[in-house]
Fold each of these.
Amino acid sequence: MKIVHLADLHLGYRAYHRTRALGINVREADVAKAFREALQRVLEIGPDLVLVAGDVFHTVRPSNSAIADAFRQFAHFCAESDGARVIIIAGNHDSPRAAETGSILRLFDEIPGVHVVHHGAKRLVFPELDAAILCLPHSELIASESATAIEPAPHVAHNILLAHAAIDDERLKLLMDFGAARLKRGAIEPEQWSYVGLGHYHLRSRLAPNMFYAGGIERTSLNIWAEADALPAQEPELRRWAGDTWPEAAWGKGFIEYDLEDDSVAFHTLASPRPVIDLTPIIRDQEEAEELDSAIESSLAKIPDGIDGKIIRLRIFELPRDIYRELDHKKIREYRTRALHFHLDTKPPKAVRHEGSAAPGRRFTLEEELAAFLKGRWTPSSKSVDMEELVQLGVRYLREAEDTHALENA
């Protein structure tokens, strides 16, 4: 039996205030295009089961156009497929805070061949396939005490677990977006299951021979630079984890094909995602703005096929404000016009201050201030708090907030 595993579609995602004809946001159109390509590729594969592991939409209340297009695409897929069953669970982006609000995903239950689990755990059984799927949507796992036992069904040849959650795995900490329910790695015993399909983490990741995050179909994370096509050499931790989580580069977007008969696995990379380039940062050693202008131009010139239509970030460290003001901003505006989004992220030199003893000292960063506060001036109410993990979580939130602020003001 063959299955296909998709996750984190984030239909209706919008960014950068660029629009196409009829006022459609360019990034929303990008995501819709990737979704159509994915379903067409899945049709060609002809699986028995299609697992969609949550976050079908980017918001709880997506636009009418996003809803209508998703409905048409799923309906067309089911009509054209050779009896494939589509199983959709709700992720944190799909789940309203109040259960009585209702989930937009209920609409897709009206399509023959589509099965939706949006609130509460549910086991779907398909006798004709001798298969059972335990579905754990976000609302089930976010509850403080879930009554669901994560156990396979007896007397079934193929048991599948489908969940939208942040798995407690050391390799995933730096790149995991917040907002999802957390699920301890030990709560899942992959060897008891034929397949474990996960959603929420946007980079495809293999946590066990039969346990996967499919990753997203487009780059829609809060920090999209963590999903860039080419990582700067200065990001060794991200590069190392990419190698750990998959034998090939983990940054391509697509879906997983898995054969339950022989446990073979393949990742299908989509051609449609828009290029996202995080250039190697410039550490300023030029004294003149003209030299820095040349360094910026040289960095952009290294991008294959140019900058047009791409999403690009270039960081410059140790850049004083007076030199920043002297940069060729007309040229920078030209770059921003040609690219879909060009984010020139400049960091001023670290300020130096004098402490009370008149001895020179360095001004602490926000991250250092946070660590000092949590470790030295704050007493947790529970002894079970892992201080190092709390500090790492706080630092990650600060970085994500800084990236979001920079994107909104670029």
Amino acid sequence: MSRIIAALASFWLAIAAASAQDFSGLARLDATQSGITDDGWTGLRIELALSQGVPYRLFTLDEPARLVLDFQEVDWGGVSPGQLLQSKQLKQVQFGTYVPGWSRMVLELAEPMAVAGAEMQIDSASGRAHLTVTLAPQSAEAFASNAGAPHDPRWDLPEPADVPAGLRRGPDAPLIVVLDPGHGGIDPGAETGGLFEKDLMLRFARELREVLLRAGDFQVVLTRDSDHFVSLEQRVAIAHQAGADVFLSLHADSLAEGQAHGATVHVLSRAASDVASAKLAERHDRGDLLSGVDLSQADDRVTGILLDLARQETRPRTQALAQALVDGMMQAGGPMNRRPLRKAGFSVLKAADIPSVLVEIGFLSSPRDLANLRDPAWRGGMARGIRDGLLAWRQADAARRPLVRH
């Protein structure tokens, strides 16, 4: 307990000192003077050399055991995890933009460890800073009891605004489409040859937005319009806040086992339709661990019943949406996977009242798909195929609405 109190005291003193010096701008990480190493036989030592001091905070998360460091703000350019990771007591380290203006480093620990000390020293002459964090072994029970993200308005995003219930828009109102470019910031997604899924999907989402807006029948919202991290929970919250009619999560993953080619469209299901869908769901949902949000806990009984009732109406509309998108992309030339319509338990599709699908535009592990994803003409055709699918679905959905019981 004394170690925890000391670590917290060190943390708040560092915050106060950083705030007092009114740091601003990006701090650059010097990889040559930084590293994550073993501290004695069982401890861990983190040394980060920064071009200037910045406010920071740290906390731990459980399942799996992680240490999270937030900064305002660090430029990680030119630094790879391998340059820093020199300890066998870590499974992996990831870092990058968390939200605009904030950076995050996440260390997945091999065993539960407590923060024993944290200190940022700043050179009065140069302004350069050196952050040292030490960790010591801790029991799993003690780690779990102390883990959890702190809530501080100086650091946290504001809560999504409530959307007034019962709002009805006219039949000629634009279709509100929320486009969700997968991954982002600290979570790069799949990678091949220096290309990251997060960047490819952000570019495609922007291009698709333009295609939809030019059609004149759509209002489009992006869950992120820059390279920053958005948790799975926040992506769904953005869709609710926008009053979305449709939620499209965009991905271009990579499968190491077997071969996968062509676009696929996934709808939510408790059981995956195949092994590949199960693996993709596991990969996508892992991104949520970075923010410490757990969407897997069961709702209470009453809430569960209400959600099931909402899904009874949404499920057939979602199935129809997925099929319309498959048809639209196929008519645009695809190529589509030989089994383009699939099911999986993607957490990002769990909005009970919004037809939501996850579109794998292609697979980075497929040379053909990768070439297509890099081709502006192909992306334009695929975007028009999605537009046509949405238009066809909206027309059919409007025709079916009088048949739905209210």
